[in-house]
Design goal:
Blueprint lengths: L8 H20 L2 H6 L4 H12 L3 H15 L4 H34 L3 H8 L5 H17 L4 H13 L15
């Protein structure tokens, strides 16, 4: 500890709470993503143990223990990887919403198909037109939305997923 600039108790507590929160995010990850992080064995065991705990006080103590183990690990690469996964997930969600909006427009407006084809010149309009007609008929007849889903799948194959934007550099902010 530096005698001239000692770390305050409040700052230490804030850092420990941040590590516990990071540990809680790790507990919620799936097994594949957890393995990709290359964490120490003791930390991995503690995380797997926390997943099986049902009692809230016991889980809280386990998360505190995970936070304690996190002190020995460089948390910056872990945070960066989690952030990258979240950004990727957000971009995928944006793409899915874009496909859903096109499907809804195509079902609501007759002129939307021409606009869609103009935006996606490689798309064959005939199968899309058939799916639109069948989805509308299903809706009117109150049938299960088989063609509604098929239209979504067809649009998802045509509309390219948007590439994620590169993260902003610190010196540009």
């Amino acid at each position: 500890m530096d005698r001239e600039n000692p770390v305050s108790k409040t700052r230490r507590k804030r850092e420990m709470t941040a590590l516990q929160d990071l540990g809680q995010e790790l507990v919620q990850l799936n097994v594949d993503r957890l393995a990709a992080l290359d964490l120490p064995d003791a930390l991995l065991r503690a995380i797997h143990e926390a997943r099986s705990i049902k009692s809230f006080p016991a889980l809280r103590r386990q998360l505190q223990y995970i936070g304690r183990l996190m002190r020995d690990v460089d948390a910056a690469p872990i945070r960066a990887r989690l952030e990258a996964w979240q950004v990727s997930s957000r971009h995928h969600t944006v793409w899915l919403h874009r496909v859903e909006r096109w499907r809804d427009r195509l079902l609501a407006e007759d002129a939307a198909l021409e606009e869609f084809i103009a935006e996606n010149p490689g798309a064959d309009p005939q199968p899309i037109r058939t799916l639109i007609r069948n989805a509308r008929a299903e809706r009117i007849a109150g049938k299960p939305p088989k063609n509604y889903r098929a239209l979504f799948q067809a649009l998802a194959e045509i509309i390219p997923p948007s590439p994620p934007e590169p993260p902003a550099r610190r010196d540009e902010q």
